[in-house]
What does this fold into?
Amino acid sequence: MVQSDTPVLALHDVSKRFGAVQVLTGVHLEVHAGQVVALVGDNGAGKSTLVKTIAGVYTIDEGSIEWEGRKVTLNRPQDATALGVATVYQDLALCDNLDVVANLFLGRELMRGGRLDEVAMEKKAQELLDTLSIRIPSVRIPVAALSGGQRQVVAIARALIGDPKIVILDEPTAALGVEQTAQVLDLVERLRDRGLGVILISHNMADVRAVADQVAVLRLGRNNGVFKIAETSHETIISAITGATDNAVTRRQARVAEAEGTK
Amino acid sequence: MSDQKATQMTSQGTASQSIPAAPAVDPRLLVREQGLNGYLAEFQRKLRSGDLGSLPVVVGLVAIAIIFQSLNSHFLTAGNLSNIALYLAGPGLISVGIVFVLLLGEIDLSLGSVAGASAAIAAVAAVQHGVNEWLAILLAVGCALAIGALHGFFFAKLGVPAFVVTLAGFLGWNGLQGVVMGKTGTLNNIPNGVIAKLDNYFFDDVAVAYGLAAIGVAGYLVATLLAARNRRQAGLPARSVTEIAVRAAGLAVLAFVVAYMFNQDRGMPLALVVLLAVVIGSDFVLRRTRYGRQVFAVGGGIEAARRAGISVARVRISVYMISAGLAAVGGLFLASQSGSADKQLGSGNVLMDAIAAAVIGGTSLFGGRGKAWSALLGTLVIESIMVGLDMQNTSQSIEYMITGAVLLAAVVLDSVSRRTQKSSGRG
It folds into this structure.
């Protein structure tokens, strides 16, 4: 995938306060088409707040958001959706009683003559799931009958119905088993291959290293480095997340190295 | 059924389609075998997974018919069955409204009072103030819609639990009914007026009952055939023509037997025509329109519905308006049935019967599962029991106890089937 020079989404100097708490301070982030950017950081680093500003849930206090080079304001979630930002939150938010097709098209139903066009929706749902190589026993079974991994891929597929350009995935593998995690990671790669920009929030370094092109580290609401995954060691990222070279992890590593050295 | 057989079966099914590389059907999916055995197997599987469908109703109706017919040989006569049909309309309409509310996973305890208050408003306007009856009906339904909007506002916008809001409404609108009626305890319907005819008019031309039966069957046949053709053209699995023909034939037998029965007596009752029209209309709205999908979505997961851009408050308020509006129309039928509007109309077991009917018919108390038809089927069960008990000269106290037991049984059935459905992953 050839990356264009203009990022699809660019955040410049974004700041956000909640009362007396400065949650984000001068944060930069760029996402290109066909790129997976992992957003990592400890709890409370501001990852969720950052993606919620992109998703239009929170408005920013300072800074600017650019969409394909053009400055935009996001006041409501609908603004972000209209631009082409799709967000898959950790708690999926699927309707258990509705079948896969109804869930995929919820809020965006295809209509024909004032009625729901079930045939067109089922066909399009089947095609979408096929192109993403998502295997679900049937698109007409209630979501309640699906496993955790299948629900995750349905939620991701649902985000794709509106043809977005940026997909935000909040901890997509947090609750999944080995096999299902691999399936979701496969899906993330397929999104990238389709030319979508993906923002992946994850605590799991193995997942991040497996699929991300870039890692953006947040620490205490500030940028703490953007790394190309291929050229960066695990330790560098960890120290960027924890914020110092003197921390529990490095101390332990030093101790282990010392112990090995004395042997 | 073996998995191998299942995949063979579906590959046969999809091979004839124009899709060059038909995606292999997931081996985990149980595909129904063709023929009678397939239906039996699927029926058993559904039963085991707690998806009872209309089975409790069918079993209940057969049991009711056998028991009451053995007690009184007049139970299954055309005249008596026609009377049951007349008793259906009022409670049935209220029950359709209950179905909407139950689909949201909520409850509306005020509907009996709303029905009574609406009947009182229409009667006082028409009888005491000489307002045109149609205008009086419009006024009553309009007031009910406003009442529903008020319930919905308190529930959806202010976040007061619907249970409490409608409990307050249950008392408050019952009081309003008394105030509207004033010192006159009873207002007789205008003889031969609109309200008087609602539940007492029969189309005595035999062609009406047969015509409606024919239209219903033909409509069903055309709609299902067209839907199947569309699905087949889109390369999706569709019902076979044989299956549609068998279903349509079954419907035709049922429809024409009922029509024949009505024609043996006084003809097709207007009340049943209205109820059927409302049920069919509601079924269409719930299953085929965006609004209906939103009702199900809110009942299945409020957060999911909100994230999908559905205005949850709008859906909730509108559903309470629908339930109150239908209760008003139901109240007018109740007034027509009893010949007068009074301070007691809509009290007693009217509300409980309507809720029980919806649940017996298969609509879940827990939201997100159910259909408009359950109101009709459940009301049929309840009213058959009532008429049967009346024929035995049972006292009202005993009737209350039996209704209570039936309601409890229906709710137990719903809870157990929900638990079984959960464990077999069907929501």
Observations:
- The CA atoms of residues 16 and 22 of chain A lie 6 Å apart.
- The interface with chain B takes residues 78, 81, 89, 91-98, 102-103, 106-109, 111, 114-116, 119-120, 122-123, 126, 130, 135-138, 142-146 of chain A (CB under 8 Å).
- The two ends of chain A are 49 Å apart (CA to CA).
